[in-house]
Model the fold of this input.
Amino acid sequence: MDFSIRAANLEDCKDIARMILELAEYEKVSEHVKVTQKDLEQDGFSKNPFFHGIVAEVPEAQRTKDGHVKVGYALYFLSYSSWKGRCVYMEDLYVMPQFRGKGIGKALMSKVAQLGMAAGCTQLNFTVLDWNKASLDFYMAQGCSDVTAALGYHVMRCEGEELERLAQP
Done:
């Protein structure tokens, strides 16, 4: 399959927003998506972006029945480990279903790893749903390990009213 991976730009936000919704539907959590195309534009392409992105494109001749040539994406940001130093966190890795198994997901993940290593990062972190066996198998095949099982960490979150209450002095 012919495809290319490149840095996302402002004009890609519409397609990234579409694929975020597709990913959320696949993960059965679409009601949780609040990010809009405008949010992506502001948060990813401002002077101090909160995230970076890459997209996978296919040639026009291979576009989807809906006319899409952007068929996958990854969002990532740099973070820091008090034990290991610089890290890259991959927030999303998504490839449209009809384009899976063709090397696009591996190419996207590999590019995030390359970009992280170029920034001096020593690890790539991400989460995956426990029921998503296909993704778990894919990540394990890339040499990744499940630190939940190995180290017993739980991903924790504080949001909404709880976050507002926590932020009170």
The mean pLDDT is 95. The beta strands are 4-7, 52-57, 70-81, 85-95, 123-125. DSSP finds six helices and five strands in the chain. The CA atoms of residues 34 and 52 lie 18 Å apart.
